[in-house]
Amino acid sequence: MLDQVVVGGGASLANLFIHALLVGAIAATLRDLANTDASFPGFVQYTLVIVATGTLLVVGHFAEVAVWAYVYEWVGAVPPGTDLVYFAFGNYTTLGYGDVVPVPTWHLLGPMTALNGVMLIGWSTALVYDLLQRSVRTPG
User: Fold this and answer.
1) Alpha-carbon distance 8 to 20, whole Å?
2) Own/partner pairs for 55-59, CB < 8 Å, 24+ apart?
3) Closest by Cα among 119, 138, 27, 1 to 64
């Protein structure tokens, strides 16, 4: 069981690092935009910022799912021939169809993936919520 916790914890930390870099870059860009004179009307600027932020966050989540898929492959967590990205997405989003089941020696990786996904998706949601709150409060 310790090996599952170490491997799952490592994947979770890698994803936290990826997400922190992404959110940090988005936040820095938003701060820079707030300090510039916009040539676009406020609603156009905020629409573009929200779409760009959402797009970057989705790309980040895809990368994080890919980390989990790689980990599953690396440790042999699922039966041969399994679509690893499909399995990783199912776990990461907590959807979990149940049509793919991990091998018993790595069964904790699924719930660890789900916990990591919930946390990172929640972090993304908080960022978008904050961005929307700022757009409502900012005259433009």
Assistant:
1) 18
2) 56/22, 56/25, 56/26, 57/22, 57/26, 57/124, 57/127, 57/128
3) 119
- DSSP sequence for 48-103: HHHHHHHHHHHHHHHHHHHHHHHHHHHHT-S-TT--HHHHHHHHHTT---SSS---
H helix count then E strand count, the chain: 4, 0
Amino acid occupying residue 116: N
Give the CB-side neighbour count of residue 85, counting CA atoms within 13 A: 4
Residue 109 clears pLDDT 80, i.e. is over it: yes
**Which range, of 60-69, 118-127, 129-138, averages the lowest pLDDT?**
129-138
What pLDDT score was predicted for residue 50? 85
pLDDT, tens only, 17-58: 999 999 999 888 877 776 665 565 677 777 888 888 999 999
b/e code 106-123 from CB counts within 10 Å (16+ = b): bebbbebbbebbeebbeb
pTM value is: 0.88
What's 79's DSSP letter?
-
> What's the CA gap between 132 and 94, in Å, rounded?
26
